[in-house]
Design brief:
This protein has a 13-stranded antiparallel beta sheet, with no helix packed on it. With about 180 residues, the protein is an all-beta fold. Helices cover about 0% and strands about 75% of the residues. It starts with a strand and ends with a strand. A hairpin with a 2-residue loop joins strand 1 and strand 2.
């Protein structure tokens, strides 16, 4: 997956491309987004995607999707958000979350997600910066495939996160995230 954001006035445009899977089965997405501030306490964004799933010998399904969200900052340390994701091939997914920045070095967050015909499920995470260059992250969820732990290394404008989750059938699933963000 690759993403980029380009500042534009009070907001930013975003681009995303993603492909997961192998030659026998894969999913891919291309998206464009715009997000902006609506004052000192509210941020909002909207993203449009083209998504496809390919299964060898069975064919391809493809459709457009849209996601939108609002983030509210009731105080300097508190953040509350809601998000909606619509894809014509699946039920609408609603999510809401809260984040608490106890300090510049410690963040707690929780999220509840709900799709039309499924029970709601939750995720909670903590991120603690041990030293300016190094942080640890731990996340738990009511669905086992979303448990994860990671280490984040910060070097100036570059952040590298190495993490792993555990899926009951697939086992340990590693991931790497690389973020370059100019100040």
């Amino acid at each position: 997956m690759a993403m980029a954001a380009v500042p534009a006035g009070a907001g930013a445009f975003g681009l995303q491309v993603m492909r997961i899977g192998n030659s026998a089965y894969y999913q891919q997405r291309a998206g464009v987004a715009y997000g902006r501030s609506a004052g000192s306490r509210v941020d909002m964004g909207l993203q449009f995607n083209y998504e496809s799933t390919v299964i060898a010998s069975y064919g391809t399904t493809a459709a457009f999707s849209v996601a939108g969200g609002i983030l509210y900052h009731p105080g300097k340390q508190w953040h509350v958000g809601i998000r909606m994701y619509y894809y014509s091939q699946a039920p609408v997914v609603y999510s809401g979350g809260v984040g608490f920045e106890a300090s510049r070095d410690f963040l707690l967050s929780a999220e509840v997600m709900k799709a039309a015909n499924e029970a709601a499920w939750m995720k909670a995470a903590a991120c603690y910066r041990i030293i300016p260059q190094l942080a640890l992250q731990l996340g738990m969820a009511s669905r086992p495939p979303f448990h994860r732990a990671g280490v984040i290394y910060h070097l100036h404008a570059l952040s590298i996160m190495i993490a792993a989750g555990f899926h009951p059938q697939l086992g340990i699933t590693p991931s790497t995230t690389i973020i370059w963000q100019r100040d």
